[in-house]
Amino acid sequence: MALKLADRVRETTTTTGTGTVTLGGAVTGYRAFSAVLATGDTTFYCITDGTNWEVGIGTFNSTGPTLARSVLSSSNSNALVSFGAGSKDIFLDYAAERAVYSATALAISSLGI
User: Which of 5, 32, 40, 61 could be a cystine partner for 26, CB 3.0 to 4.6 Å?
Assistant: First the structure.
C-alpha cells in the first residue's frame, strides 16, 4: 500500500516486548490510526513509555488494530525497545532521518523570524 502521514493521530497501547503493537484507542482530542490508515499502509510512528522510546516505520493492520514495528532510531541503541508492562503512547511522527527538506527553499522571512 502507501506511505501515509497525518496530523493529530495518537493512541495508547499496553503491548509488551518487541513485537507488533496492539492499538488501544485514540487519546482524547486525537484521531485513531484507523481514521487515516488502511490495512497494509505504512507510516512513521513514535512509541514511548515516558522514558524509553523508538521511532520507526510501522505497517498498519485494521484487524486488532495493530502496527508492526521496524525501528529507525531508539533509546535502545537504535534497536527495537522491549517495552514493559503499563501504558505507552504511540503516535504518527515524521522521522527526521527520512525527512525531505531544503534549507534554501525555506523563506525565513515568511515565518516572521
Answer: 32
Instruction: Find, among 86, 84, 87, 59, the residue nearest to 71 by Cα.
Output: 59
Distance CA 76, CA 73 (A): 8
Q: What is the residue whose three cell numbers read 502507501? A: 2
- C-alpha 95/C-alpha 45 separation (Å) is 8
- How much is the pLDDT for 22? 98
Between CA 95 and CA 113 the distance in angstroms is: 25
The cell 486488532 sits on which residue? Answer: 64
Rounded distance between C-alpha atoms, residue 90 and residue 49, angstroms: 9
Measure the CA–CA gap between 55 and 35, rounded to whole angstroms. 21
Q: For 50-80, how does the pLDDT look when each residue is reduced to its tens digit (9 = 90+)?
A: 999 999 999 999 999 999 999 999 999 999 9
Cα–Cα distances in Å, from 12 out to 48, 66, 89, 94?
10, 12, 5, 18
- Tell me the C-alpha to C-alpha distance, in Å, between residue 75 and each of 1, 5, 32, 33, 105: 29, 23, 25, 24, 32
